[in-house]
Amino acid sequence: QVRLVESGGGLVQAGGSLRLSCVGSGFRFSSYAMAWFRQAPGKAREPVAKITRNGDSADYADSVNGRFTISRDNAKSTMYLQMNRLKPEDTAVYYCKIRLFDTDFWGQGTQVTVSS
Question: Which of 6, 57, 101, 102 is the most buried (most CB within 10 A)?
Answer without folding.
Answer: 6
